[in-house]
């Protein structure tokens, strides 16, 4: 008795900040199944690829960004028997974050690609089980802002505290007290490293410019209050 067809894919939750919105990358499928419907970007893992290599390749194909220029981490695996009508397909999802990503490029099996505000995607139905994968990716990003420097992945190499605070506000979808936030992030060991330079791009008085520090975890965690 032969084994049924089986495949492995990678899917990507790619988040960026566009204007005043937290956005996710979605593609309109150009082939069956779910032709014409919106989905997360992704594809089949090639025979000679590691999972992480496949994820970085798909990210480069969809965004035009070279591997290594975007924060990317493994999110979770999804293997419900009926998640893909073609065959048994197990997917490994990855979370990718970057500031000001360019207009996306539609991959080989996509008819269109766009940045969609996360708040609008909650009212849409994505193909496969991508609604769940997107929700899990958002939960991971929001949670990691509490205890890691992940928020700086949405910033330019040099940024102000106000710019970093806007990242937290958009990802968490809440307003933060500027003075309280400034005190916490500048007091968090290893989170920020002063550059010694200032900028007036926030408006008003010159603001200190920082870069990401060397900390991997934050103690105590950042609080939203």
Automatic annotation (TrEMBL):
InterPro entries with a match to the protein in the record: Nudix_hydrolase, NUDIX_hydrolase-like_dom_sf, NUDIX_hydrolase_CS, NUDIX_hydrolase_dom, WH-like_DNA-bd_sf, WH_DNA-bd_sf, WHD_NrtR
Keywords: Hydrolase
Family annotation (CDD domains): NUDIX_NadM_like
Gene3D superfamilies from the UniProt entry: Nucleoside Triphosphate Pyrophosphohydrolase, Winged helix-like DNA-binding domain superfamily/Winged helix DNA-binding domain
Keyword Hydrolase annotated: yes
Transmembrane segments: none
GO molecular function: hydrolase activity
Pfam families given in the database record: NUDIX, WHD_NrtR
Domain Nudix hydrolase residue range list: 1-140
Similarity annotation: Belongs to the Nudix hydrolase family.
Name under which the protein is recorded: NUDIX hydrolase
Organism of this sequence: Amycolatopsis iheyensis
């Amino acid at each position: 008795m032969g084994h049924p067809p089986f495949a492995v894919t990678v899917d990507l939750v790619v988040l960026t900040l566009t204007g005043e919105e937290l956005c996710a990358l979605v593609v309109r499928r150009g082939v069956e199944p779910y032709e014409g419907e919106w989905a997360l970007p992704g594809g089949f893992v090639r025979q000679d690829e590691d999972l992480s290599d496949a994820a970085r390749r798909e990210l480069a194909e969809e965004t035009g960004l070279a591997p290594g220029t975007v924060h990317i981490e493994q999110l979770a695996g999804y293997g419900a028997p009926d998640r893909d009508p073609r065959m048994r397909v197990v997917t490994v999802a990855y979370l990718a974050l970057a500031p000001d990503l360019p207009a996306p490029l539609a991959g080989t099996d996509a008819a269109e690609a766009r940045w969609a505000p996360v708040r609008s995607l909650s009212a849409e139905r994505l193909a496969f089980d991508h609604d769940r994968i997107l929700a899990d990716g958002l939960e991971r990003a929001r949670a990691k802002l509490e205890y890691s420097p992940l928020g700086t992945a949405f910033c330019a190499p040099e940024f102000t505290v106000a710019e970093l605070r806007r990242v937290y506000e958009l990802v968490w979808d809440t307003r933060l007290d500027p003075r309280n936030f400034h005190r916490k992030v500048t007091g968090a060991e290893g989170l920020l490293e002063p550059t010694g330079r200032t900028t007036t791009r926030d408006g008003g008085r010159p603001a200190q410019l920082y870069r990401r520090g060397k900390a991997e975890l934050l103690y105590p965690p950042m609080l939203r209050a």
